[in-house]
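ARCHIVE CARD
CATEGORY: sequence design from structure
SOURCE FIELD: tokenized fold
FIELD CONTENT:
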């Protein structure tokens, strides 16, 4: 039986997500996952610290997924068994995400989150690498996302689908993260469409609107997760000062280098937080 394509406007994207979740269960032998992690730039090492990897599946082996298009992302989904005093749970780690600027459409962008929900996840942790507007947040600073501003002019919701986004980035989960590191700052994440970096004027605009972080991902995933009934925790890694805030020119290599330098510390932080969830 052929799985309907996300590119077909007559297809229900939830049907494709359910098909991917069924294929995931068959490939991993794990009937249900509990928490999902979407690992952005710099966050990849967290998967190794969570627990025992039960199975690893190439994203291209699952319906609706494609190979990652961005350097620094890993094209696999990993099932990890987490054992704590409270019992055993399974985490689904998505090593890559589809970005809106890739031109594959919003459905493809949020397919991973929808698949996680279909696989049973009630919680999702969304991470990213981003530019910071606060000069005191140097490269390598993890920041909890308290809210977002979506400047992509897009939404993953189709038709008359009205979803409340109040407390989208769960205050309860942010409190759990602060149990691990009470010093974690928080801020508002502003998503631009990309793939070009923001201009200094656009960064100033983001600050006037109330933003503290700028990037090219996360907000659409968060909206889709709320629609699917998941609780959302967002954590950004400041990989560089945003345009006009710092004096250095921006580059993707700078983002990757900041992620490599901060990797061990932020991976341990994320693993500790997820175990508490």
């Amino acid at each position: 039986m052929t799985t309907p394509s996300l590119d077909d406007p007559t297809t229900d994207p939830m049907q494709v997500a359910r098909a991917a979740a069924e294929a995931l269960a068959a490939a991993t032998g794990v009937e249900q996952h509990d928490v999902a992690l979407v690992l952005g730039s710099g966050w990849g090492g967290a998967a190794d610290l969570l627990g025992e990897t039960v199975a690893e599946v190439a994203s291209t082996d699952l319906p609706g997924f494609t190979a990652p298009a961005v350097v620094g992302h890993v094209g696999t989904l990993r099932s990890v068994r987490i054992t704590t005093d409270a019992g055993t749970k399974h985490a689904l780690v998505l090593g890559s995400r589809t970005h809106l600027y890739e031109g594959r459409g919003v459905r493809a962008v949020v397919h991973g989150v929808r698949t996680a929900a279909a696989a049973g996840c009630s919680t999702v942790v969304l991470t990213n690498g981003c530019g910071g507007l606060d000069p005191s947040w140097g490269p390598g600073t993890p920041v909890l996302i308290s809210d977002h501003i979506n400047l992509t002019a897009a939404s993953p919701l189709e038709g008359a689908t009205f979803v409340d986004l109040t407390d989208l980035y769960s205050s309860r989960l942010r409190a759990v993260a602060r149990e691990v590191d009470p010093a974690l700052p928080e801020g508002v994440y502003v998503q631009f469409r990309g793939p070009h970096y923001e201009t200094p004027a656009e960064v100033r605009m983001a600050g006037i609107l109330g933003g503290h972080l700028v990037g090219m991902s996360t907000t659409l995933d968060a909206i889709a997760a709320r629609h699917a009934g998941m609780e959302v925790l967002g954590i950004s890694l400041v990989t560089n000062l945003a345009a006009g805030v710092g004096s250095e020119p921006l580059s993707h290599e700078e983002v990757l280098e900041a992620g490599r330098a901060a990797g061990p510390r932020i991976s341990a932080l994320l693993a500790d937080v997820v175990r508490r969830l």
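CARD ANNOTATION: The longest strand covers residues 231-241. The chain has one domain: 13-276.
SHELF: design records, drawer C
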